[in-house]
Write a structure and sequence with these properties.
alpha+beta, 5-stranded antiparallel β-sheet, membrane
Amino acid sequence: MNHQDTLAQRQAAEPSQSSLGWLGYGAVLSALASALATFLILAGATPILPTHNVVVWVFALNGVLIAILLGIVAWQTRRLVRERKAGAAAAGLHVRIVGLFSLVAVLPAILVAGVATVTLERGLDPWFTGALKDLMTNTVSIARSYRELQCRTLARETQLMAADLNRAKVLYDADRNLFREFMNSRATFLGFPLAMVLEPDGAVVERFEAKKLEGVPQPALADLQEASNREALCLFPRSGNIFRTVLKLDAHGGRILYVAREVDPRAVEFPQVAEAGVAFYEALDQKKAGIQIAFASMFALIALIVLLSAVWFGLNFANRLVAPIRRLIHATDQVATGNFYVQVPVKRGEGDLGHLGETFNKMTSELRRQHDSLTAASDLMDRRRRFTEAVLAGVSAGVIGVNARGLVTIVNPSTEALLGASREELLGKPVAMVLPEVAALVEEMSLGRQRLMQQQIHIARKGKERTINVRVTSEQTRSEKRDLVITLDDITDLVLAQRTSAWADVARRIAHEIKNPLTPIQLSAERIRRKYGKVITTDREVFDQCTDTIVRQVDDIKRMVDEFSSFARMPKPTIGSEDLAETIRQVIFMMKIAHPEIEFVDQVPPGPLVAPFDRRLVSQAVTNIVKNATEAIAAVPEEQRGQGQIRVLLDDTHPDFLIIAVTDNGKGFPVEGRQRLLEPYMTTREGGTGLGLPIVAKILEDHGGGMELADNPAGQGGQVRMWIPKIKHNASEETSATSSRNDSRRASL
C-alpha cells in the first residue's frame, strides 16, 4: 500500500546496513587479534622473532586493519551526523549514546598509551648505525632534487606552450574561439589542468580548466611583475601539491601565461618530512631513544585498534538500540498525518521495544478500523446530502430548512426566486425576518406536537403579490427542539386559472340563460310602443320614456352578455410569423391620435421583430393595456401627476421571450389584492366590467406567455409586463408546462 512507502524505503536500506555490520564485526575481531599477536611478538612470547621485516609486516597489517576500522567508523559517523542535521527521529539519543561509548573508550586508551610510552622509553636503549644516518641525510637531498626536477619539467613545458601561443598570435587576432580551442588542446596535450592568459594587472584574458583544482590561488602582482619572457618562473606552494609557473608572452604585448599542475604530494611534503625526519633522527640519535619510539608506536597502534573497536561497538550498540525507537517515531509521525495503515516492523530479540511495536501495530489496526467506519459513514452522509441538494434543486416548490433556533439552514433555487433574495442573504437569518408571513405558523408548530401544518398566505416581494400554499413539517425526534421544513408552493397561477375557469363557466351559463328572453322582451316593448303609442293620449311622455328605457336597458344587457360570451369563448389564436414591433407601433399610433394630450414614448426596435403570434389578438391585448394606462392617467389630477406619459418598451434581449412593458404615471395598482385584478369581474374603476385584464391574460396564456402587474420603477404609476415566446410551442406542451414556465419566467424577467 502507498501508505507504508516511508517505512518501506527505510526497511529497504536494512540489508546494506546488515552487510556493513558483518563487515564491522570481522574487521574488529581481526584488528583485536592482530593487536594481541603484535603484543606477543614484541614481548617475545612467540617463536617469531621481532626482526625488522616482521615488525614492518606487523605495522602494515595493523595499518590496513586500522584503515578499515577508520573507514567503517567514519561512514557510520558521517551517516549519524547527516541524520542529526536532517533532524531524524532519535538522532539526539543516538549521538549521546555514541558520545558516551567513545568517551569511555578514549580515556582508558589514552591512559594505557601514556603508561606504555613511559615504560618503553625507560626500559629500552635504542641503537643506531652510521649507515642509517647517511641514508636519512641522502633522503633529504633526494627529496629536494625531486622537487626541483618537477619544477624544471613544469617550466620547460610552460615554455613550449608559450612558444605555441606566441606563434598563434595571428590566430588570436583573427578568431578568438579558434585560438581558445588551440590553447585548450595545447594545455590538454601538455597535461595542464589549469592554464590562463593574464594581463600584467592580473585580469584574466583566456582561461582553460580541464578539472577543478581546489585551493589554487591567483598569482600575486609581485609574481607577475617578476615573470620573465626567457625562463618560466616556478611558484612553490606553501601548502598543497600544486606547482605553478608564470611566463611572459612576447607576441601578446606583455601578457603572461599562468599554468598549474598537480604533482605527487611527496614532491612538496616529503622534503619537509625528510628534513624533519633527519632532525628527529639526530635528536633520537643523541638521546638513543629510537627503539623506545618504535615500541611506543606499536603500542599506539594497538591502543588505536582498541579505541576504534570500542567506538565501533558503541556505534553498533547505539544503532541496535535506536533503530526500533526510530521506527516507532516514524510510524507515529505517519499516524499523525492521517496514515492509519502504517505498521512497525518488529524483529526478534528486541525485547520490550519489540513488544511496544506490537502494541503500536494493534493500536493502528484499531484506529484504521474506526477511521474506515467513520469515512464510510461520512461518504454515505455526503452522498445523501448531494442527493438531497439535487432533489431540492429540481423541485419547483420553494423549500426552507429551519433549525431548532429558528435560523434558516437550507434554501433551494425556487425559494431564492420566490423571495427575490440570494442564498447568502437568506442562510443564517431568522425565519421571522426572511418570511414574516409564516412566523406565526412556525411558532405554533414549534410549541405544539403536530407533525404537519399548512396554510395559504399572500406575500408581496418587489411589488409582486403571490398566493402561496405553505406546509410546515417537523423532524421525527423526541426532543423538544425540532428542526422544521417549510414548503412554499406558488399557486397564484393555479388559483387564477381555477377562478378564470369558474367565471368562464358562469359566463356561459349567464349568457345562455339571459340572452334567450332578451330578444322577446325587446320586440314586445317595440310592438307595444308601435301599437299603443297612438292610442294613449294621457301620460304619453311617460309611456314613451318607459318603452325607450326598456329597449335601451335590453341593449345594455345584450352588450354585457356579449362580453360574457366573448370571455367564455375566447377564440383560439391563429399563430403565424408576424412583426411584433410593427404591431406595437400601430397601436401606439392609434392611441396617439385618440389621446393627443398624453405623451407616448416609443422604445420599440426600429427594424422588424418577427415572432409566432396572432396579430389581431396581441394587438387587442396591447390596445387594452394602453387604454387602461390612459384611464389611469386621467384618474389623477394633472397638478398631482404633471404631464401624462405612457412608455411602451419592447425588449428582445431575453433568450426565450419577447417582453412588452407598458409604464404610465397614473394612479397605479393597489398593493394588496393586485394579482386579483387578473380575475374576472375584479376592477377598481367605476363602470368597469373587470374583464379587460383577464382577457389580456388569457390571450397571452394561449400564446404560451404571461403578464404581471408592478409599480412604475421611476416613481408614481404602474407597469404591466407581458411576454410571449420567441418560438412556437405545442398546445399539449403549453398545458403541461404552464406553471413551471411561469415560475422560471418570473425569476428571470
